[in-house]
Design goal:
heterodimer, A: alpha/beta, Rossmann fold, 6-stranded mixed sheet, 4-stranded antiparallel sheet, 10 helices, 10 strands, about 25% strand, B: mainly alpha, 2 domains, globular
């Protein structure tokens, strides 16, 4: 459902994403892990059509996003890591606006919007301007906006940031149910626990290159002898940082 | 753990308190300003050159006008210095009022809404340091424009009255307290208001009050027609006139002290009292401001963190607007509705409409009182006025477009992720911004030109030409505003009012004025020939009219479409 080939993104001399190949089939929840600055967000923003690749292609449901962006984006919902939204719209109006961007309106959209807001305990805030929402509430609203038009693919960058435990749990269940119904989700996260418990497959990116890719069992094989995902992650991305931290505290 | 921390920080262990200096608190601001100045290397030379040229032209203009006037005053026996003093007093009262208003608004941002406040208030920083740092920030941010205006003004006075090499020091000694006093008063007013209303609501209230006051001052100033007071023949005798000039306008206002201090130096009879009044008042104001800050600031800052209840009731608007806009389709309708909601819910945006209304009233008022009847008013002059009217109306439109249409794409900066990741063409976004801006602008344009042409009693032909031309110009100006606003975006600026003052805003204004000028020039000759044909029966060439009007229409069409096309490509390549 998401197919990226030889994807490269350069900012001047710096290569943020360096020849990434990835194929996420329909119905899969794919976890995208990596240290800070590894190229996760850049990759996701290229998939969402916000950044243009220096080279390589991105296909959503078989449609090349560079060649036919409108058709590709019709299948897509994007949840960014920084929840900036229109401060002077109410939550309800924002969801209606997003549905409108996908050419959807009417009773069905209203119904879905109400359901999503109720799911995230935002129903009472429906008619309140976004400027009075907390960070977590904005994150919930953005998540709701990605679901309101029922996309085939959801690309989500750090979904758990700012969410309370209840909302985080709801989101996990929502993601699981969504993929069970044949939709596809590609998610970046720093929460290894979330990735381990939720994702069908995991990709680990470092310095713009995919270092490991596969199911948890595959990753165990790649980082032979490691225990949980945290050990695998540290082994693949370098344990030096953790050791350095201890040194700093001891100093 | 406490023992470990104390051991690691001997200063804490000894009971000494950290004491960051005032400069330390201002240092990040200085670094930010410096980074802003040195960043964005691309096109910096061109920007600086254009800004320098415009700055020089502006200064030269202000200096030139004032200098000539002051030379004239110098030549008038007895009342010359009085007139010069009175004029300086008027200018300084204007500065003082502007400074008061601008400090009240700026203080709200710097004392209560700035992003560095959490750090400062949570840090071990003495309250007085915070107050002084924020006061300096407020005064600098709200006064730089007045200072830029004051430089050519004082220069004109200094040179015309031979103030000597020490005059710049005297001018600085006058100006600095004149900036500090309204800074302290503005901050104190804001501090008090924030303790009564929530900060965000205070911002709304303040912006409306400020705009209403500014509009009221302009309107009042225009309606009393001060040009009549400048005619001595209106007074019964010269003695009355001199008495009026000698009477202090506002003896308790610092601007009056500043006027007296400056004129006493320029007339070689130095009077220390006004300097003393200015500096002691400024010092006392800072002390009282600091005391008020100590009493009210923390309570106000805490209150500023609370958001007021901001419910947006459905009402009639969404249903009616949706029905009216339904032919546009769902996507475009939602884009237009979003634009309207954002505009009318943002007090800082819609309140500008009040100023716009004032501007229009003043404009129409000026046209109404133009001396276009009586001797010496030729056929040519009568018909040049409607054309001049078109240029001026076009200039008003360009200013309005710079304020309301030009910032449109910049304001999408933080939400661009949503628009870029959705299945919407950037052309749809740009055209929705174009139409949302153009429709009210069109109403304004046709109203201004229609009413003023009616007041000028122009012929039906000129009326039709004016209205059609202003419609075409409106499209062109809007297209340029959307285009330049996208080509030179200010994605990081949160304050829409600052966006038109950017380099792109300047380029937009220059292009818009150029288009307006060329359109008027293209139409002027055929229209003049036609009017001579109608009035005096002279020969008239219809081909000339066709070419003139055709080229003007073509230029407006190109100015409407081409910038938006370029902007579309630019927006599609924006990476954020």
């Amino acid at each position: 459902m998401i197919k990226i080939s030889k994807l490269v993104k350069q900012y001047g001399d710096f290569t943020a994403v360096d020849g990434v190949d990835l194929d996420v089939p329909r119905g899969e929840l794919f976890g995208f892990l990596g240290p800070n600055g590894a190229g996760k967000t850049t990759t996701l923003r290229m998939i969402a059509g916000i950044l243009r690749p220096t080279s390589g292609t991105v296909q959503i449901g078989g449609v090349d996003i560079a060649k036919d962006p409108i058709a590709a984006k019709m299948k897509l919902g994007f949840i960014p890591d920084r929840p900036f939204i229109y401060e002077k719209l109410t939550g309800g109006e924002f969801l209606r606006f997003v549905a409108g961007l996908y050419d959807q309106e009417g009773a069905q959209v209203e119904h879905r919007a109400r359901e999503l807001l109720a799911l995230f305990d935002l129903e009472e805030w429906r008619d309140e301007l976004v400027e009075s929402y907390s960070h977590g509430m904005r994150q919930k609203l953005i998540i709701s906006s990605a679901f309101v038009h029922r996309p085939e693919v959801i690309v989500v960058d750090e979904p758990m940031v700012g969410l309370d435990p209840k909302a985080a749990r709801i989101l996990k269940d929502l993601f699981r149910e969504y993929t069970n119904r044949g939709h596809t989700i590609m998610m970046s996260t720093h929460s290894l626990e979330v990735a381990e418990s939720l994702c069908h497959r995991i990709g680990i990116i470092q310095a713009g290159k995919i270092r490991a890719l596969g199911t948890m069992a595959d990753l165990h094989g790649t980082a032979a002898g490691s225990g949980g995902l945290e050990d695998i992650f540290l082994k693949l991305t370098g344990e030096n940082a953790a050791r350095a931290l201890v040194d700093v505290l001891d100093a | 753990m406490p023992e470990t921390a104390a051991a690691a920080h001997p200063a804490l262990h000894d009971g000494a308190r950290p004491d960051p200096s005032l400069w330390h608190l201002l240092w990040p601001k200085w670094l930010t300003a410096r980074a802003r100045g040195t960043g964005e290397k691309r096109g910096r030379g061109a920007r600086l050159t254009i800004l320098a040229v415009f700055g020089f032209l502006f200064w030269s203009f202000v200096f030139g006008v004032l200098y000539r006037l002051l030379l004239y005053f110098r030549g008038v026996e007895e009342i010359g210095p009085l007139l010069a003093g009175k004029l300086l007093g008027l200018l300084l009262v204007g500065f003082f009022s502007i400074l008061l208003l601008s400090n009240v608004i700026t203080a709200l941002s710097s004392f209560f809404l700035a992003k560095d406040l959490d750090l400062l208030v949570a840090g071990p920083v003495d309250w007085l340091r915070v107050y002084l740092a924020k006061l300096v920030e407020t005064v600098l941010n709200s006064s730089w424009m007045v200072v830029l205006m004051a430089i050519p003004m004082f220069a004109a006075y200094g040179i015309a009255y031979k103030g000597g090499w020490w005059f710049p020091v005297v001018a600085a000694a006058v100006l600095i307290p004149l900036l500090i006093i309204p800074g302290v008063i503005g901050s104190a007013v804001t501090l008090t208001l924030v303790n009564v209303f929530p900060a965000r609501r205070t911002r709304d209230i303040l912006s409306v009050i400020a705009v209403l006051t500014a509009g009221g001052i302009v309107l009042l100033f225009r309606i009393v027609r001060p040009e009549r007071l400048a005619r001595p023949e209106g007074f019964r005798s010269l003695v009355d006139f001199v008495t009026v000039l000698r009477t202090p306008t506002a003896p308790y206002l610092p601007s009056e002290w500043a006027q007296n201090a400056t004129m006493s130096w320029l007339q070689y009879r130095l009077d220390y009292l006004p300097f003393y009044m200015l500096w002691t008042t400024a010092a006392a104001a800072v002390v009282f401001g600091a005391l008020l800050h100590r009493t009210l600031y923390l309570k106000g800052f805490s209150k500023a963190q609370e958001s007021s209840a901001r419910w947006a009731r459905a009402g009639m608007f969404p249903g009616v607007a949706s029905r009216i806009l339904s032919p546009l389709g769902i996507l475009r309708r939602e884009l237009v509705l979003k634009e309207l909601r954002l505009f009318f819910r943002d007090t800082t945006q819609w309140s500008q409409l009040i100023l716009l209304a004032v501007l229009v009233v003043v404009y129409v008022f000026n046209i109404k009182f133009l001396p276009l009847r009586g001797e010496g008013i030729t056929f040519f002059l009568l018909n040049v006025v409607p054309f001049l009217n078109l240029v001026l109306a076009g200039f008003v439109l360009a200013s309005v477009a710079a304020r309301f249409i030009f910032p449109g794409v910049s304001l999408e900066g933080r939400t661009l992720w949503l628009l870029r990741s959705s299945p919407m063409s950037m052309a749809d976004l740009l055209w929705s911004k174009f139409w949302v801006g153009t429709t009210p602008l069109l109403v304004l344009a046709v109203a201004i030109v229609g009413v003023t042409d009616y007041l000028l009693a122009v012929a039906p032909f000129m009326f039709a030409v004016s209205v059609l031309t202003i419609i075409a110009m409106t499209f062109a100006v809007s297209g340029l505003a959307v285009g330049f606003g996208t080509m030179f975006p200010q994605f990081e600026t949160e304050n829409a009012a600052q966006i038109p003052t950017s380099f792109g805003g300047l380029l937009f204004m220059m292009s818009a004025i150029a288009v307006i000028g060329v359109v008027v020039i293209l139409e002027a000759r055929p229209v003049y020939s036609y009017l001579r044909f109608q009035t005096f029966g002279e020969q008239f060439d219809s081909l000339e009219m066709g070419i003139g009007f055709g080229l003007a229409a073509l230029l407006c069409g190109v100015a409407t479409v081409v910038p938006i096309r370029i902007a579309r490509t630019r927006l599609e390549n924006v990476e954020r």
